[in-house]
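Researcher: We plan to redesign the surface later, but first we want a full-length starting point. Tokens attached.
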């Protein structure tokens, strides 16, 4: 049984609005589709469900772009004097910047007691290896007279 043109149009409108807003209720409203009916179609139509997921990915990409813009480029905010705008100041979001860094480089920027533990383990292993090599270089040879390799040190 072929799908009606009106239903196809509503699904297309819904998916477009979902990609723009990331909000199922808003997308359903814009497509003049009941929210619960949209979920019913999703359960019954695998192609629609996949397109729904893709639309949400697009919406999240847009949000990430906006977060990056606010963190890096900043946002102009008006400044007032005696009730009038007298200028603007550009504000940046350090918290958004850290959020993006943690999302994209969790091994470096994550929080918690394990933060950076992999890097620390590698650093400590390298330091231990260097120390062992130095100690080995200082160790007396088997055929030496047993003299201390470090002059002036009490035994």
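Model: Full-length starting sequence:
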């Amino acid at each position: 049984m072929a799908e009606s043109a009106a239903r196809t149009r509503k699904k297309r409108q819904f998916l477009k609005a979902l990609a723009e807003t990331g909000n199922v209720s808003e997308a359903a409203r814009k497509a003049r589709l009941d929210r619960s009916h949209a979920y019913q179609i999703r359960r019954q139509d695998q192609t629609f469900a996949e397109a729904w997921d893709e639309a949400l990915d697009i919406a999240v990409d847009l949000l990430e772009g906006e977060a990056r813009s606010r963190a890096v480029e900043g946002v102009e905010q008006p400044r007032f004097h005696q009730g009038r705008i007298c200028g603007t100041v550009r504000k940046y979001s350090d918290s958004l910047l850290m959020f993006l860094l943690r999302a994209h480089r969790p091994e470096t920027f994550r929080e918690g007691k394990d933060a950076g533990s992999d890097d620390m383990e590698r650093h400590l292993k390298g330091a231990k290896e260097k120390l062992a090599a130095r100690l080995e270089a200082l160790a007396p040879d088997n055929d030496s007279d047993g003299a201390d390799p470090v002059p002036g040190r009490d035994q």
